[in-house]
């Protein structure tokens, strides 16, 4: 049974209220940090913990915090990125809905460490019910003296605001989020300058994911070294995985980083195997934007070892076989899944969500979707398969923000690993829309 | 100062200069194309990705190459930086791809487009594109939108460079238009089909790299290569207007008035709508002489620009030549009356 650091009390009745949360040890990190530690010491603990950003990129949090421009006297901000909307990723909303005070506690401790006097939680507009929960919890924290002027008599003051976005996927990109927070159209900014130098209102800003900030209280309470003992290598601590697709027990699981993928899929502690006793076909391990991997590659490394759920191990095979842990959106697909249809579906999403600012993404995502639509509906040609690979290559790495990669990777990986299925769709146009038929057909062809 | 190597050519530029502007100091064919960057407008650049270059060495201190191609218009130089533009096959391939992307929804209606002959995309496609397209899907088209009596918005041709949006934001007192929609459904538009109406709105025509925003008072009157550009000025009542323009003549008629542009097609100083749309008589202006046109431009067709002689050189010329020059000065108006 893996340790639960964030979700230990998630099922306690009334844990979303200040009283119950406090009874279960809530806000200890605020007391400890504000009364016994300097901001630099808090940053140092986070560095020691090896905590990596849980939003998808996996950048070391302590290092990100230490990049914040040093000059005193100018406002600086901590912004929580709660705009979770990657298909397959749904962990943060549950964390916020069930444990709002954990996030608030992390925001207070993190803001203290960074010297922020005003902090924001930028939440996806559709999550209105979560917004209400957070607002209620923030009001409770103000009433209890954990927010506002002179918190716990320490001399440190903090205002915390929740800001709903309008529901655009691109606003999950940190600079687009900041633009949106400033009241502008949510277009990503060119980097550099990075937010740590010029962020919100052109001031030094750190943008962290909900889960990342929620881990801060644990790190401050237990110490960075203790936290770093959990996990494997540079992937320390625990991670929330939102598992969905053809699994017996889809849901949100907190795993200790390093759990073998096979154990995660088949053990009763986690997903309990593939539904209806079917065979696993493919997995998207970190949200829809990361490359899809077939069963053979997701379960074993090239060396024949079980792949581990860590940031490094999922990409250890290099570009040919690699994928990423990303945001932890784990989508399992059984043997009946039509990969072409699935790829088209992902592509539709990225086409719809491209902000349209830079040419390769604006035009390329639409092009990909249209060709995939043709292939899926039996009007494609063999040339189209090479075409989508080429267009994906034209997008990848050439855009302002990572949405270009998010649109290109799933397509490129799907063709790389399941080309025979795309070809089957071309040679069997009348049956192209039948889920499962493509896979079985491919098996016959093979 | 920072010393960088651009396509094997060393150039020294002030700190904070962008790679693109460093390349412009070298000039010629090594300069990356720019569809969205516009020097006089703050915040432009980085969108069209036409100017992507490879940074083979970040700086003398950290000579590691940058992992991705970078937009040269927004990336500042570092001392010791090594940049590859035309010398990198990767850059050339990507540029070809960018032309293809930009032409997906841009109609090839150059024969009837007023921007033909002075269109940045036309030049970009000619230099970096291929003659065929792989795009077989339905293309984006738009209904005509009326945005006022002076400017024609032809959205079908728009490549979403955002230049006109920045122009409106930075030159005009009120924001009257912007980008609506997302992705390839984005479009330039006004709030509920409003009109663009303020004293400097005409400048959006000059900054548009393609034929999406054109001058309604000039549309379909003449191909630009049959006109003769002449620099002129007047005392403009609008204190924000520089009053320095280029008049585009056909015979003795002024068909169009634009702001003056530099060699990269960027406006040097902004002009007001009165100068642009209302002053179309030669008598309104003090003529200075023919505007310089790049020899490679189609506008240089039928454009008789005589050499400008350095006054210092005249002093050393034989007396007979000096007398001849006095009789037929190089920048005489007779040279541009077609």
TrEMBL record, chain A:
Keyword Translocase: yes
Gene Ontology MF term list: 4 iron, 4 sulfur cluster binding; FMN binding; metal ion binding; NAD binding; NADH dehydrogenase (ubiquinone) activity; NADH dehydrogenase activity; quinone binding
EC number: 7.1.1.-
InterPro entries named in the record: ComplexI_51kDa_subunit, NADH-UbQ_OxRdtase_51kDa_CS, NADH-UbQ_OxRdtase_suF, Nuo51_FMN-bd, Nuo51_FMN-bd_sf, Nuop51_4Fe4S-bd, Nuop51_4Fe4S-bd_sf
Pfam families attached to this UniProt entry: Complex1_51K, NADH_4Fe-4S
Domain of life, per lineage: Bacteria
Single GO biological process annotation from the record: cellular respiration
UniProt entry keywords in alphabetical sequence: 4Fe-4S, Flavoprotein, FMN, Iron, Iron-sulfur, Metal-binding, NAD, Quinone, Translocase
Family named by the database record: Belongs to the complex I 51 kDa subunit family.
Alphabetical list of PANTHER family matching this protein: NADH DEHYDROGENASE [UBIQUINONE] FLAVOPROTEIN 1, MITOCHONDRIAL, NADH-UBIQUINONE OXIDOREDUCTASE FLAVOPROTEIN 1 NDUFV1
Its job: NDH-1 shuttles electrons from NADH, via FMN and iron-sulfur (Fe-S) centers, to quinones in the respiratory chain.
Protein name, as recorded: NADH-quinone oxidoreductase subunit F
Organism: Hymenobacter sedentarius
UniProtKB/TrEMBL annotation, chain B:
Subcellular location: Membrane
PROSITE patterns named in the record: 2FE2S_FER_2, 4FE4S_HC3
Domain 2Fe-2S ferredoxin-type per the UniProt entry, residue ranges: 2-89
InterPro entries: 2Fe-2S_ferredoxin-like_sf (IPR036010), 2Fe-2S_ferredoxin-type (IPR001041), NADH_UbQ_OxRdtase_ferredoxin (IPR054351), NADH_UbQ_OxRdtase_Gsu_4Fe4S-bd (IPR019574), Prok_molybdopt-oxidoreductase (IPR050123)
Molecular function terms from GO: 2 iron, 2 sulfur cluster binding; 4 iron, 4 sulfur cluster binding; metal ion binding; oxidoreductase activity
Keywords: 2Fe-2S, 4Fe-4S, Iron, Iron-sulfur, Membrane, Metal-binding, NAD, Translocase
Organism superkingdom: Bacteria
Cofactor(s) listed in the protein's UniProt record: [2Fe-2S] cluster; [4Fe-4S] cluster
SUPFAM superfamilies cross-referenced by the UniProt entry: 2Fe-2S ferredoxin-like, 4Fe-4S ferredoxins
CC annotations in GO: membrane
Pfam families from the UniProt entry: Fer2_4, Fer4_Nqo3, NADH-G_4Fe-4S_3
CDD domains linked: fer2
Cleavable signal peptide: none
Span of domain 4Fe-4S His(Cys)3-ligated-type: 90-129
Family to which the UniProt record says this protein belongs: Belongs to the complex I 75 kDa subunit family.
PANTHER family: NADH-QUINONE OXIDOREDUCTASE SUBUNIT G (PTHR43105:SF10), RESPIRATORY NITRATE REDUCTASE (PTHR43105)
Name of this protein: NADH dehydrogenase
Organism of origin: Hymenobacter sedentarius
């Amino acid at each position: 049974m893996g340790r639960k650091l964030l979700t230990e009390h998630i099922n306690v009745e009334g844990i979303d209220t200040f009283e119950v949360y406090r009874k279960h040890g809530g806000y200890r990190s605020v007391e400890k940090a504000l009364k016994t530690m300097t901001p630099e010491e808090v940053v140092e603990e986070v560095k020691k913990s090896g905590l990596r950003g849980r939003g998808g990129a996996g950048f070391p949090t302590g290092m990100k915090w230490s990049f914040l421009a040093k000059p005193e006297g100018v406002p600086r901000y901590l912004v929580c990125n709660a705009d979770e909307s990657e298909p397959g990723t749904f962990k943060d909303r549950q964390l916020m809905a069930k444990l709002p005070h954990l996030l608030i506690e992390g925001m207070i401790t993190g803001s203290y460490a960074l010297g922020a006097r005003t902090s924001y939680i930028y939440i996806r507009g559709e999550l209105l019910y979560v917004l209400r929960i957070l607002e209620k919890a923030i009001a409770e924290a103000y009433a209890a003296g954990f927010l506002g002027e002179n918190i716990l008599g320490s001399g440190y003051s903090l205002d915390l605001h929740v800001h709903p976005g309008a529901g655009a996927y691109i606003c999950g990109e940190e600079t687009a989020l900041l633009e949106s927070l400033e009241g502008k159209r949510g277009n990503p900014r060119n980097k550099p300058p990075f937010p740590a130098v010029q962020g919100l209102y052109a001031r030094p800003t750190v943008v962290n994911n909900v889960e990342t900030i929620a881990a801060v209280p644990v790190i401050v309470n237990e110490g960075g070294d203790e936290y770093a003992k959990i996990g494997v290598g540079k992937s320390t601590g625990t991670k929330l995985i939102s598992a969905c697709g053809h699994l017996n027990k889809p849901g949100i699981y907190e795993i200790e980083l390093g759990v073998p993928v096979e154990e995660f899929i088949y053990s009763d502690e986690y997903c309990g195997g593939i539904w209806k006793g079917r065979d696993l076909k493919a997995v998207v391990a970190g949200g829809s934007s990361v490359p899809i991997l077939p069963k053979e590659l997701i379960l074993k490394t090239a060396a024949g070892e079980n792949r581990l759920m860590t940031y490094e191990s999922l990409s250890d095979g290099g570009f040919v076989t690699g994928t990423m842990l990303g945001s932890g959106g784990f989508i399992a697909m059984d043997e009946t899944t039509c990969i072409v249809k699935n790829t088209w579906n992902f592509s539709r999403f990225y086409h719809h969500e491209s902000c349209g600012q830079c040419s390769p993404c604006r035009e390329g995502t639409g092009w990909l979707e249209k060709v995939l639509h043709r292939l899926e509906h039996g009007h494609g040609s063999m040339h189209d398969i090479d075409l989508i690979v080429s267009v994906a290559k034209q997008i990848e790495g050439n855009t302002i923000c990572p949405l270009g990669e998010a649109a290109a990777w799933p397509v490129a990986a799907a063709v790389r690993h399941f080309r025979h299925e795309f070809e089957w769709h071309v040679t069997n146009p009348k049956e192209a829309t039948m889920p499962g038929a493509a896979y079985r057909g491919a098996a016959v062809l093979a | 100062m920072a010393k960088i190597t651009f396509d094997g050519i060393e150039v020294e530029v002030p700190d904070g200069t962008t790679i693109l502007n460093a390349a412009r100091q070298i000039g010629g064919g090594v300069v990356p194309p720019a569809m969205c960057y516009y020097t006089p407008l703050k915040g432009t650049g980085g969108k069209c990705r036409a100017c992507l270059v490879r940074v083979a060495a970040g700086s003398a201190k950290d000579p590691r190459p940058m992992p991705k191609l970078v937009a040269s218009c927004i990336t500042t130089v570092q001392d010791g930086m090594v940049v590859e533009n035309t010398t990198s096959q990767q850059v050339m391939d990507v540029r070809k791809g960018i032309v293809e992307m930009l032409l997906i929804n841009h109609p090839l209606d150059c024969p009837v487009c007023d921007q033909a002959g002075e269109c940045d995309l036309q030049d970009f496609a000619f230099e970096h594109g291929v003659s065929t397209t792989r795009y077989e899907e339905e293309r984006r088209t738009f209904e005509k939108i009326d945005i006022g009596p002076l400017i024609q918005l032809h959205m079908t041709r728009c490549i979403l460079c955002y230049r006109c949006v920045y122009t409106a934001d930075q030159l005009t007192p009120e924001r009257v238009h912007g980008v609506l929609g997302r992705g390839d459904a984005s479009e330039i538009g006004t709030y509920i089909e409003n009109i663009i109406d303020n004293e400097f709105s005409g400048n959006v025509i000059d900054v548009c790299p393609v034929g999406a925003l054109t001058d309604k008072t000039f549309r379909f009157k003449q191909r630009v290569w049959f006109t003769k550009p002449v620099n002129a000025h007047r005392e403009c009542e609008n204190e924000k207007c520089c009053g320095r323009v280029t008049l585009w003549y056909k015979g003795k008629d002024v068909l169009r008035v634009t702001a003056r542009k530099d060699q990269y097609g960027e406006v040097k100083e902004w002009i007001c709508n009165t100068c642009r749309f209302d002053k179309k008589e030669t008598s309104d202006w003090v003529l200075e002489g023919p505007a310089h046109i790049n020899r490679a431009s189609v506008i240089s067709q039928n454009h008789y620009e005589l050499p400008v002689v350095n006054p210092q050189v005249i002093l050393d010329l034989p007396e007979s030549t000096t007398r001849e020059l006095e009789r037929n000065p190089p920048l005489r108006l007779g040279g541009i009356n077609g």
